[in-house]
């Protein structure tokens, strides 16, 4: 466990919440340089997360992630591909699953490239936050 008093000085949002209600308990979990914490009051738990994943990788069409944790038997892949369709819309193709298996695919359609890039940025941030590493970016 980490010392909450050390985090209070570095995290103004947490310091403000704990100043309002000092009886809150804090549970810490660190994943790849991003700090997740849950603030618990009697009967209430609010999960919060700091989105400090650093600079996002530069990519324009395809980005591939991989997560390998042999201790936990986790061998995962995640691929995002941004392409225009024949009707002028933009398609964000997501493909994920266990490495070596068929996996799942999902297509999301957006009216403009900027909308699709915004959605993709959130997905890239989420993958990095969960410990995935970029293996290819085009």
Feature tags:
globular, alpha+beta, 8 strands, 2 domains, single chain, q64v53_bacfr protein fold, 5-stranded antiparallel sheet, 138 residues
Description:
The chain is an alpha+beta fold and 138 residues long. The chain folds into 2 domains: 4-49, no CATH class; 62-137, WGR domain (q64v53_bacfr protein fold, Single Sheet), CATH 2.20.140.10. Helices cover 24% and strands 44% of the residues. The protein has 3 helices and 8 strands, in the order H-H-E-E-E-E-E-E-E-H-E. The chain has helices spanning 4-10, 12-20, 113-129, and strands at residues 25-31, 34-41, 44-49, 62-69, 74-84, 90-98, 104-110, 133-137. The strands form 2 sheets. Strands 7-6-5-4-8 form a 5-stranded antiparallel β-sheet, with helices on one face. Strands 1-2-3 form a 3-stranded antiparallel β-sheet, with no helix packed on it. Strand 5 (74-84) and strand 6 (90-98) form a beta hairpin. Helix 1 crosses helix 2 (12-20). The longest helix has 17 residues, at 113-129. The chain is globular, with a radius of gyration of 19 Å. The model is unreliable at 28-50 (pLDDT under 50).
């Amino acid at each position: 466990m980490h010392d909450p008093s050390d985090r209070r000085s570095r995290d103004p949002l947490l310091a403000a919440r704990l100043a309002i209600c000092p009886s809150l308990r804090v549970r810490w979990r660190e994943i790849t340089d991003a700090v997740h914490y849950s603030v618990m009051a009697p009967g209430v738990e609010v999960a919060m997360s700091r989105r400090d994943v650093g600079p996002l990788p530069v990519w324009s069409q395809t980005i591939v992630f991989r997560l390998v944790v042999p201790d936990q038997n986790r061998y995962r892949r995640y691929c995002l591909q941004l392409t225009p369709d024949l009707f002028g819309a933009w398609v964000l193709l997501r493909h994920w699953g266990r490495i070596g298996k068929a996996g799942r695919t999902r297509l999301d359609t957006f009216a403009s490239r900027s909308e699709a890039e915004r959605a993709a940025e959130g997905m890239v941030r989420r993958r990095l936050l969960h410990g995935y590493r970029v293996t290819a970016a085009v």
